[in-house]
Amino acid sequence: MRYLRQFERVFLVSVLLSMVALFSLNVVAREIGGNFASQMAWVDEAVRLMNIFLVFGALGLALEKGRHVGIDTLRELLPKTARNTLRKIIDVVGCIFCAYMTYLAYLLVVFVLNTGQRSPTLDIPVGWLYTAPVVGFGLLSLRYFLSLISIINRYSPDEEDDASSFEGAKS
């Protein structure tokens, strides 16, 4: 899991920095104007696609760190046994739902790739855009499963765990 987390973090930071660099370059190109600006038309579409991969790529990490939006007031008022049972039910439902969404997204990728659609400015198959939900929901399903079998504790992540996993990622 440590390697997966490290890969996800490197991927997300790389995508974000690439988006910033491309968008900054596009702004400079528009200021210069002329033929150079029209040659940079692909940047807007590329940044939009990268943003989709950024959002879906962060789903698993956000869940693992307990950063997903949730209404936990009632859940935390329950007795410990009922609270733990409810948490396991949430993890099972989340895992099954995300696995199903992964399957549906995969079917969508196959369908769109078979249509032959291509993006207008990047000239890549549009079906590759739909791989972002496949990966994102797959990672989300994995995190729900790991929470279900108590390999990760997504309900009360410690700040120390964040620091130690960051230190482990650097070494």
UniProtKB/TrEMBL annotation:
Which domain of life does this protein belong to? Bacteria
Q: Which UniProt keywords apply?
A: Cell inner membrane, Cell membrane, Membrane, Transmembrane, Transmembrane helix, Transport
Annotated membrane topology is: Multi-pass membrane protein
- Places the protein is found: Cell inner membrane
Q: Which residues form the Tripartite ATP-independent periplasmic transporters DctQ component domain?
A: 19-152
The Gene Ontology biological process annotation of the record reads: C4-dicarboxylate transport
Q: Which InterPro entries match?
A: DctQ, TRAP_DctQ
The UniProt family comment states: Belongs to the TRAP transporter small permease family.
- Name of protein: TRAP transporter small permease protein
Q: Which organism is it from?
A: Ahrensia marina
- Lineage of the species this protein comes from: Bacteria, Pseudomonadati, Pseudomonadota, Alphaproteobacteria, Hyphomicrobiales
